């Protein structure tokens, strides 16, 4: 039936699951450990989608040891990319009360690409100067997209503040629109995923972590939404991804076993906490 809300059942399932997730996972573990768990998992997979070869375990080790980590079959540029992602993620969490505007977005991009973009001949935080394309996708007219950024961000800032759109749906819709705007010369994918989580953080919703193993499904959802001028595919993908993550982590919490990786390394001392699955 025309005009029928396609997300009623999925939204209800997500909201019900989120209540359990908040109680069993978010509230049950040390806040700093849980933030660090999210940071490591998110950084590994978001950078991995773009080709970074660091695994979750590699990323955890980099977080613990910094540049003192022993790089085996990894490049220093990849390590810089992960470290910059840590810093950008920390920034959006510390500034979750910020308005969603052009200044904020360019600052996050500057932090995200600080140690990688100069190698490619560009300046972090500056918009692209040529038409953007990736693989077989030519994005929207770059000059027009950049000119429209203040208005685009203002519309989502208003949507965040009026709270009429479900947070996960708002996050997904923004993500698709930002990716197809593609205003920066590099880092748009990682930045788009960070900004989607910035929206979710404002509403205290679980962060969306798209696994690198799901890269093609993710790209297909973006392409389908653009091709059909309909947000159904990307919103469904965001819901499916978040629901699967919550179900997985709730299941781990209920069925802890000797094989479950419990705790973070803190020097030679293992602190009790939640690290999730190794991937």
UniProtKB/TrEMBL annotation:
Active site residues per record: 182
Record carries keyword ATP-binding: yes
UniProt entry keywords in alphabetical sequence: ATP-binding, Nucleotide-binding
Domain Fido: 100-240
Annotated ATP binding sites: 186-193
Molecular function in Gene Ontology: ATP binding
Keyword ATP-binding found: yes
Positions of the record's site feature: Important for autoinhibition of adenylyltransferase activity: 50
Pfam families named in the record: Fic
UniProt protein name: Fic family protein
């Amino acid at each position: 039936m025309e005009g029928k809300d396609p997300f009623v059942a999925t939204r209800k399932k997500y909201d019900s699951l989120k209540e359990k997730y908040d109680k069993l996972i978010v509230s049950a573990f040390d806040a700093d450990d849980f933030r660090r768990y999210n940071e490591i998992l998110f950084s590994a997979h978001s950078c991995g989608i773009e080709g970074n070869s660091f695994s979750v375990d590699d990323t955890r080790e980099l977080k613990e040891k910094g540049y003192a980590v022993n790089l085996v079959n990894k490049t220093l540029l990849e390590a810089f990319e992960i470290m910059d992602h840590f810093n950008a993620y920390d920034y959006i969490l510390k500034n979750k009360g910020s308005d969603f505007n052009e200044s904020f977005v360019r600052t996050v991009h500057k932090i995200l690409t600080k140690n990688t973009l100069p190698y490619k001949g560009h300046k972090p935080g500056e918009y692209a100067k040529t038409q953007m394309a990736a693989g077989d996708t030519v994005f929207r007219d770059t000059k027009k997209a950049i000119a429209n950024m203040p208005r685009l961000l203002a519309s989502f800032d208003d949507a965040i503040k009026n709270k009429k759109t479900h947070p996960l749906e708002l996050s997904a819709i923004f993500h698709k629109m930002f990716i197809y705007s593609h205003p920066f010369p590099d880092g748009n994918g990682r930045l788009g995923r960070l900004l989607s989580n910035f929206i979710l953080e404002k509403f205290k919703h679980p962060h969306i972590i798209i696994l690198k193993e799901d890269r093609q499904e993710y790209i297909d959802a973006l392409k389908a939404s653009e091709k059909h001028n309909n947000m159904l595919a990307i919103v469904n993908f965001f819901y499916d991804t978040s629901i699967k993550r919550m179900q997985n982590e709730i299941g781990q919490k209920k069925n802890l076993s000797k094989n479950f990786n419990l705790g973070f390394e803190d020097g030679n001392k293992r602190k009790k906490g939640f690290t999730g699955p190794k991937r």
